[in-house]
Amino acid sequence: MRAAVMHQAGDVRVETVPDPRIVSPTDAIVRSVRACICGSDLHPYHSLPASDPGRPMGHELIGVVEELGAEVTALSVGDLVVVPFAYSDNTCPACRDGFQAACHHGGFYGSNGVGGLQAELARIPQAAGTLVAVPGVDPATADDALLKSLLTLSDVYLTGYHAAFMGGVTAGSTVAVVGDGAVGLSAVLAARRMGAEQIILMGRHAERTDLGVAWGATDVVPERGDEGVARVLELTGGLGAQVVLEAVGLMPAYVQSYSIARTGGTISRVGVPQYSDAPVGGTSLFRRNLTLTGGVAPVRAYLEDAIQDVLNGEIDPGKVFDRTIGIEDTPAGYAAMDAREALKVMIEF
Protein backbone atom coordinates (compact mmCIF):
# COMPACT_ATOMS: atom_id res chain seq x y z
CA MET A 1 0.00 0.00 0.00
CA ARG A 2 0.98 3.66 -0.32
CA ALA A 3 1.57 5.75 2.78
CA ALA A 4 3.03 9.15 3.69
CA VAL A 5 6.33 9.04 5.57
CA MET A 6 8.28 12.05 6.88
CA HIS A 7 12.04 11.55 6.83
CA GLN A 8 13.07 14.94 8.17
CA ALA A 9 11.80 18.50 8.32
CA GLY A 10 10.30 19.42 4.95
CA ASP A 11 10.77 15.92 3.51
CA VAL A 12 7.50 14.00 3.15
CA ARG A 13 7.46 11.05 0.75
CA VAL A 14 4.75 8.68 -0.42
CA GLU A 15 6.19 5.19 -0.20
CA THR A 16 5.06 1.63 -0.79
CA VAL A 17 4.99 -0.13 2.56
CA PRO A 18 3.64 -3.53 3.69
CA ASP A 19 -0.10 -3.77 4.19
CA PRO A 20 -1.05 -3.77 7.88
CA ARG A 21 -2.34 -6.98 9.41
CA ILE A 22 -4.20 -7.99 12.54
CA VAL A 23 -1.67 -8.22 15.39
CA SER A 24 -4.02 -8.40 18.37
CA PRO A 25 -7.59 -9.73 18.61
CA THR A 26 -8.62 -6.17 19.53
CA ASP A 27 -7.38 -4.77 16.18
CA ALA A 28 -9.27 -3.81 13.04
CA ILE A 29 -8.04 -3.10 9.51
CA VAL A 30 -9.70 -0.10 7.85
CA ARG A 31 -9.53 0.84 4.18
CA SER A 32 -9.22 4.61 3.83
CA VAL A 33 -11.96 6.70 2.24
CA ARG A 34 -10.77 10.17 3.28
CA ALA A 35 -7.77 11.35 5.31
CA CYS A 36 -6.23 14.78 5.74
CA ILE A 37 -3.27 16.86 6.85
CA CYS A 38 -3.45 18.51 10.28
CA GLY A 39 -1.95 21.80 11.36
CA SER A 40 -0.13 19.85 14.07
CA ASP A 41 1.57 17.82 11.30
CA LEU A 42 3.37 21.03 10.38
CA HIS A 43 5.29 21.04 13.67
CA PRO A 44 7.46 18.03 12.70
CA TYR A 45 7.45 19.36 9.14
CA HIS A 46 9.41 22.30 10.54
CA SER A 47 11.59 20.50 13.06
CA LEU A 48 11.86 16.71 12.65
CA PRO A 49 15.48 15.48 12.70
CA ALA A 50 16.59 13.21 9.87
CA SER A 51 15.64 9.59 10.49
CA ASP A 52 15.48 6.27 8.69
CA PRO A 53 13.00 4.70 7.99
CA GLY A 54 11.12 7.91 8.85
CA ARG A 55 7.91 8.67 10.69
CA PRO A 56 4.55 7.40 9.36
CA MET A 57 2.23 10.39 9.17
CA GLY A 58 -1.44 11.12 9.65
CA HIS A 59 -4.02 10.77 12.42
CA GLU A 60 -7.37 11.75 10.83
CA LEU A 61 -9.42 9.23 8.87
CA ILE A 62 -12.78 7.89 7.84
CA GLY A 63 -12.80 4.47 6.23
CA VAL A 64 -14.48 1.12 5.70
CA VAL A 65 -13.82 -1.85 7.96
CA GLU A 66 -11.98 -4.57 6.03
CA GLU A 67 -11.11 -7.04 8.78
CA LEU A 68 -11.82 -7.45 12.49
CA GLY A 69 -9.93 -9.13 15.28
CA ALA A 70 -11.73 -11.89 17.13
CA GLU A 71 -12.59 -9.69 20.12
CA VAL A 72 -14.14 -6.85 18.09
CA THR A 73 -17.80 -7.84 18.01
CA ALA A 74 -19.77 -4.58 17.91
CA LEU A 75 -18.57 -3.64 14.41
CA SER A 76 -19.05 -5.35 11.05
CA VAL A 77 -16.94 -5.65 7.94
CA GLY A 78 -18.21 -2.98 5.53
CA ASP A 79 -19.07 -0.40 8.19
CA LEU A 80 -18.10 3.20 7.46
CA VAL A 81 -16.28 4.37 10.58
CA VAL A 82 -14.82 7.56 11.99
CA VAL A 83 -11.31 6.99 13.37
CA PRO A 84 -10.44 9.31 16.30
CA PHE A 85 -6.88 10.62 16.26
CA ALA A 86 -6.03 8.61 19.40
CA TYR A 87 -6.98 4.99 19.94
CA SER A 88 -8.49 3.93 23.26
CA ASP A 89 -10.24 1.01 24.92
CA ASN A 90 -13.06 3.32 26.13
CA THR A 91 -13.30 1.30 29.36
CA CYS A 92 -10.31 2.28 31.54
CA PRO A 93 -10.63 4.89 34.32
CA ALA A 94 -9.31 7.71 32.12
CA CYS A 95 -11.80 6.82 29.38
CA ARG A 96 -14.68 6.55 31.83
CA ASP A 97 -13.76 10.01 33.09
CA GLY A 98 -14.09 11.31 29.52
CA PHE A 99 -10.40 11.63 28.63
CA GLN A 100 -9.98 8.89 26.04
CA ALA A 101 -6.88 10.54 24.54
CA ALA A 102 -5.13 9.62 27.82
CA CYS A 103 -6.34 6.00 27.80
CA HIS A 104 -4.17 3.71 29.91
CA HIS A 105 -4.12 1.17 27.06
CA GLY A 106 -4.27 3.60 24.15
CA GLY A 107 -1.87 5.57 22.04
CA PHE A 108 -1.29 7.59 18.90
CA TYR A 109 -0.77 6.66 15.28
CA GLY A 110 2.67 6.69 13.71
CA SER A 111 4.42 5.36 16.83
CA ASN A 112 5.00 2.16 18.80
CA GLY A 113 4.59 0.00 15.74
CA VAL A 114 1.26 1.51 14.69
CA GLY A 115 1.23 3.11 11.23
CA GLY A 116 -0.02 6.55 10.30
CA LEU A 117 -3.42 7.27 8.80
CA GLN A 118 -2.26 9.09 5.65
CA ALA A 119 -2.26 5.67 4.05
CA GLU A 120 -4.47 3.41 1.97
CA LEU A 121 -4.96 0.93 4.83
CA ALA A 122 -4.65 1.30 8.59
CA ARG A 123 -4.44 -0.98 11.59
CA ILE A 124 -6.56 0.39 14.42
CA PRO A 125 -5.68 -0.96 17.88
CA GLN A 126 -8.40 -1.14 20.53
CA ALA A 127 -10.90 -1.00 17.68
CA ALA A 128 -13.99 -1.75 19.75
CA GLY A 129 -13.36 1.26 21.95
CA THR A 130 -12.04 3.53 19.21
CA LEU A 131 -14.09 3.21 16.05
CA VAL A 132 -17.60 4.58 15.72
CA ALA A 133 -19.77 3.43 12.82
CA VAL A 134 -21.76 5.95 10.80
CA PRO A 135 -25.27 4.54 10.36
CA GLY A 136 -26.87 4.44 6.95
CA VAL A 137 -24.05 6.04 4.94
CA ASP A 138 -22.50 4.31 1.94
CA PRO A 139 -19.23 6.08 1.08
CA ALA A 140 -19.56 5.00 -2.55
CA THR A 141 -22.68 7.12 -3.00
CA ALA A 142 -22.45 9.64 -0.16
CA ASP A 143 -22.29 13.35 -0.87
CA ASP A 144 -18.74 14.73 -0.78
CA ALA A 145 -19.76 17.48 1.64
CA LEU A 146 -21.07 14.85 4.08
CA LEU A 147 -17.83 12.86 3.92
CA LYS A 148 -15.83 16.05 4.54
CA SER A 149 -17.84 16.89 7.64
CA LEU A 150 -17.56 13.34 8.97
CA LEU A 151 -13.80 13.51 8.48
CA THR A 152 -13.54 16.62 10.66
CA LEU A 153 -14.94 14.56 13.54
CA SER A 154 -11.74 12.51 13.67
CA ASP A 155 -9.95 15.58 15.06
CA VAL A 156 -10.30 19.15 13.88
CA TYR A 157 -13.93 20.03 14.62
CA LEU A 158 -14.05 18.13 17.89
CA THR A 159 -10.75 19.67 18.97
CA GLY A 160 -12.35 23.08 18.49
CA TYR A 161 -15.42 21.81 20.32
CA HIS A 162 -13.24 20.56 23.16
CA ALA A 163 -11.72 24.03 23.52
CA ALA A 164 -15.16 25.57 23.90
CA PHE A 165 -16.40 22.80 26.19
CA MET A 166 -13.44 22.99 28.54
CA GLY A 167 -13.60 26.77 28.46
CA GLY A 168 -17.14 26.64 29.77
CA VAL A 169 -18.75 28.62 26.94
CA THR A 170 -22.37 29.32 27.84
CA ALA A 171 -25.30 31.23 26.43
CA GLY A 172 -24.60 34.96 26.38
CA SER A 173 -20.85 34.68 27.00
CA THR A 174 -18.09 36.69 25.34
CA VAL A 175 -15.50 34.49 23.63
CA ALA A 176 -12.22 35.28 21.89
CA VAL A 177 -10.65 32.73 19.55
CA VAL A 178 -6.90 33.07 18.99
CA GLY A 179 -5.97 31.57 15.63
CA ASP A 180 -7.75 31.36 12.27
CA GLY A 181 -6.63 27.86 11.35
CA ALA A 182 -9.05 24.97 10.98
CA VAL A 183 -9.19 24.33 14.74
CA GLY A 184 -9.77 27.99 15.55
CA LEU A 185 -12.58 28.20 13.01
CA SER A 186 -14.07 25.00 14.42
CA ALA A 187 -13.94 26.59 17.88
CA VAL A 188 -15.94 29.53 16.52
CA LEU A 189 -18.60 27.14 15.20
CA ALA A 190 -18.73 25.26 18.50
CA ALA A 191 -18.91 28.44 20.58
CA ARG A 192 -21.80 29.72 18.51
CA ARG A 193 -23.67 26.44 18.97
CA MET A 194 -23.12 26.76 22.73
CA GLY A 195 -24.80 30.16 22.66
CA ALA A 196 -21.92 32.64 22.87
CA GLU A 197 -23.22 36.15 22.20
CA GLN A 198 -19.97 37.82 21.13
CA ILE A 199 -17.23 35.84 19.37
CA ILE A 200 -14.04 37.70 18.53
CA LEU A 201 -11.86 35.88 16.02
CA MET A 202 -8.21 36.89 16.03
CA GLY A 203 -6.85 36.18 12.56
CA ARG A 204 -5.48 38.02 9.57
CA HIS A 205 -6.31 35.81 6.58
CA ALA A 206 -9.54 37.10 5.05
CA GLU A 207 -10.42 33.86 3.25
CA ARG A 208 -10.34 32.13 6.65
CA THR A 209 -11.95 34.79 8.80
CA ASP A 210 -14.77 35.07 6.24
CA LEU A 211 -15.65 31.45 7.06
CA GLY A 212 -15.37 32.31 10.75
CA VAL A 213 -17.90 35.12 10.27
CA ALA A 214 -20.21 32.76 8.39
CA TRP A 215 -19.97 30.38 11.34
CA GLY A 216 -20.78 33.00 13.97
CA ALA A 217 -17.83 35.30 14.65
CA THR A 218 -19.18 38.76 15.45
CA ASP A 219 -15.84 40.56 15.21
CA VAL A 220 -12.51 39.96 13.47
CA VAL A 221 -9.25 41.31 14.89
CA PRO A 222 -6.32 41.03 12.46
CA GLU A 223 -3.89 42.89 14.72
CA ARG A 224 -1.40 41.01 16.89
CA GLY A 225 0.61 41.84 19.99
CA ASP A 226 -0.25 45.00 21.89
CA GLU A 227 -2.42 46.31 19.06
CA GLY A 228 -4.46 43.13 19.05
CA VAL A 229 -4.89 43.24 22.82
CA ALA A 230 -6.01 46.86 22.68
CA ARG A 231 -8.56 46.07 19.97
CA VAL A 232 -10.10 43.19 21.92
CA LEU A 233 -10.33 45.33 25.04
CA GLU A 234 -12.02 48.05 23.00
CA LEU A 235 -14.57 45.56 21.64
CA THR A 236 -15.34 44.29 25.15
CA GLY A 237 -15.70 47.63 26.92
CA GLY A 238 -12.27 47.31 28.49
CA LEU A 239 -13.13 44.03 30.24
CA GLY A 240 -11.68 41.36 27.96
CA ALA A 241 -13.21 38.03 26.97
CA GLN A 242 -14.80 35.73 29.53
CA VAL A 243 -13.46 32.72 27.61
CA VAL A 244 -10.35 32.67 25.41
CA LEU A 245 -9.87 29.69 23.10
CA GLU A 246 -6.22 29.32 22.05
CA ALA A 247 -5.82 27.24 18.89
CA VAL A 248 -2.23 27.95 17.84
CA GLY A 249 0.21 26.44 20.33
CA LEU A 250 2.94 29.08 20.11
CA MET A 251 4.07 31.32 22.97
CA PRO A 252 2.87 34.61 21.42
CA ALA A 253 -0.63 33.12 21.18
CA TYR A 254 -0.53 32.12 24.85
CA VAL A 255 0.64 35.59 25.91
CA GLN A 256 -2.06 37.17 23.79
CA SER A 257 -4.62 34.86 25.38
CA TYR A 258 -3.97 35.82 28.98
CA SER A 259 -3.64 39.47 27.98
CA ILE A 260 -7.19 39.60 26.57
CA ALA A 261 -8.90 37.44 29.21
CA ARG A 262 -11.39 39.08 31.54
CA THR A 263 -10.68 38.96 35.27
CA GLY A 264 -12.07 35.67 36.56
CA GLY A 265 -12.14 34.28 33.03
CA THR A 266 -10.89 31.07 31.45
CA ILE A 267 -8.21 30.30 28.87
CA SER A 268 -8.73 26.98 27.09
CA ARG A 269 -5.75 25.76 25.06
CA VAL A 270 -5.99 23.12 22.35
CA GLY A 271 -3.15 24.25 20.11
CA VAL A 272 -0.34 21.74 20.70
CA PRO A 273 2.14 23.76 22.82
CA GLN A 274 5.53 24.21 21.19
CA TYR A 275 6.99 25.28 24.54
CA SER A 276 7.53 23.69 27.95
CA ASP A 277 7.62 26.78 30.18
CA ALA A 278 4.94 29.46 30.25
CA PRO A 279 3.99 32.33 32.57
CA VAL A 280 1.47 31.39 35.25
CA GLY A 281 2.41 33.93 37.94
CA GLY A 282 1.13 37.23 39.21
CA THR A 283 1.15 39.24 36.00
CA SER A 284 -0.27 36.47 33.84
CA LEU A 285 -2.84 34.26 35.60
CA PHE A 286 -2.71 34.54 39.37
CA ARG A 287 -3.44 38.19 40.00
CA ARG A 288 -6.58 38.19 37.86
CA ASN A 289 -7.90 34.80 38.99
CA LEU A 290 -7.64 33.33 35.50
CA THR A 291 -8.26 29.62 34.95
CA LEU A 292 -6.07 27.73 32.48
CA THR A 293 -7.61 24.59 31.01
CA GLY A 294 -7.83 22.62 27.77
CA GLY A 295 -5.54 19.89 26.49
CA VAL A 296 -5.59 16.97 24.09
CA ALA A 297 -9.15 16.55 22.86
CA PRO A 298 -10.90 13.28 23.81
CA VAL A 299 -12.59 13.04 20.42
CA ARG A 300 -14.11 9.66 21.26
CA ALA A 301 -16.09 11.23 24.13
CA TYR A 302 -18.01 13.48 21.75
CA LEU A 303 -18.23 11.33 18.65
CA GLU A 304 -21.69 9.75 18.68
CA ASP A 305 -23.46 13.07 19.26
CA ALA A 306 -21.32 14.85 16.69
CA ILE A 307 -22.03 12.21 14.02
CA GLN A 308 -25.75 12.73 14.54
CA ASP A 309 -25.33 16.52 14.33
CA VAL A 310 -23.62 16.08 10.95
CA LEU A 311 -26.19 13.57 9.67
CA ASN A 312 -29.02 15.88 10.79
CA GLY A 313 -27.46 18.81 8.94
CA GLU A 314 -27.03 20.84 12.11
CA ILE A 315 -23.32 21.50 11.53
CA ASP A 316 -21.18 21.63 8.39
CA PRO A 317 -17.58 21.60 9.66
CA GLY A 318 -16.30 20.09 6.42
CA LYS A 319 -16.12 23.58 4.95
CA VAL A 320 -12.65 23.88 6.49
CA PHE A 321 -11.34 21.74 3.61
CA ASP A 322 -10.33 23.94 0.72
CA ARG A 323 -8.13 21.54 -1.26
CA THR A 324 -8.49 17.87 -2.21
CA ILE A 325 -5.61 15.70 -3.40
CA GLY A 326 -4.77 12.05 -3.99
CA ILE A 327 -2.36 10.17 -1.74
CA GLU A 328 0.44 10.63 -4.29
CA ASP A 329 0.22 14.41 -3.89
CA THR A 330 0.54 14.42 -0.09
CA PRO A 331 3.98 16.12 -0.12
CA ALA A 332 2.49 18.99 -2.13
CA GLY A 333 -0.38 19.16 0.36
CA TYR A 334 2.07 19.69 3.21
CA ALA A 335 3.85 22.40 1.25
CA ALA A 336 0.56 24.17 0.48
CA MET A 337 -0.53 24.23 4.11
CA ASP A 338 2.91 25.33 5.25
CA ALA A 339 2.83 28.22 2.76
CA ARG A 340 -0.73 29.09 3.88
CA GLU A 341 -1.94 28.46 0.35
CA ALA A 342 -4.46 25.99 1.78
CA LEU A 343 -6.38 26.03 5.05
CA LYS A 344 -6.79 22.25 5.34
CA VAL A 345 -6.01 19.59 2.75
CA MET A 346 -8.11 16.46 2.32
CA ILE A 347 -6.71 13.24 0.86
CA GLU A 348 -9.19 11.26 -1.26
CA PHE A 349 -8.68 7.55 -1.90
How would you describe this structure to a colleague?
The chain has 349 residues and is of the alpha/beta class. Helix content is 28%, strand content 25%. The chain contains eleven helices and 18 strands. The chain has helices at residues 42-47, 93-96, 127-130, 144-152, 156-167, 182-193, 206-214, 225-235, 251-260, 299-311, 330-338; strands at residues 2-8, 11-16, 28-36, 55-56, 61-68, 80-83, 86-87, 107-108, 121-124, 132-133, 174-178, 198-202, 219-221, 241-246, 261-269, 291-294, 323-326, 345-348. Strands 3, 5, 6, 9, 10, 17 and 18 form a seven-stranded mixed β-sheet that branches. The protein starts with a strand and ends with a strand. The mean pLDDT is 97.
| Element string (H = helix, E = strand) | EEEHEEEEHEEHEHHEHEHEHEHEEHEHE
How much is the radius of gyration in Å?
Answer: 20 Å
Give a quick account of the main beta sheet: strands, pairing sense, barrel closure: 7 strands, mixed
Beta-strand percent range: 15-25%
Got a strand count? Answer: 18
What is the overall pLDDT average?
A: 97
Which stretches of 5+ consecutive residues score pLDDT under 50? none
Q: Given the structure, what is the number of helices?
A: 11
Per the principal axes of the C-alpha atoms, what is the gross shape?
globular
Structural class: alpha/beta
Distance between the termini: 12 Å
Helix content: 25-40%
Topology record:
Layout: E1 2-8, E2 11-16, E3 28-36, H1 42-47, E4 55-56, E5 61-68, E6 80-83, E7 86-87, H2 93-96, E8 107-108, E9 121-124, H3 127-130, E10 132-133, H4 144-152, H5 156-167, E11 174-178, H6 182-193, E12 198-202, H7 206-214, E13 219-221, H8 225-235, E14 241-246, H9 251-260, E15 261-269, E16 291-294, H10 299-311, E17 323-326, H11 330-338, E18 345-348
Parallel strand pairs: 11-12, 11-14, 12-13, 14-15, 15-16, 17-18
Antiparallel strand pairs: 1-2, 1-4, 3-5, 3-9, 3-18, 5-6, 6-10, 7-8
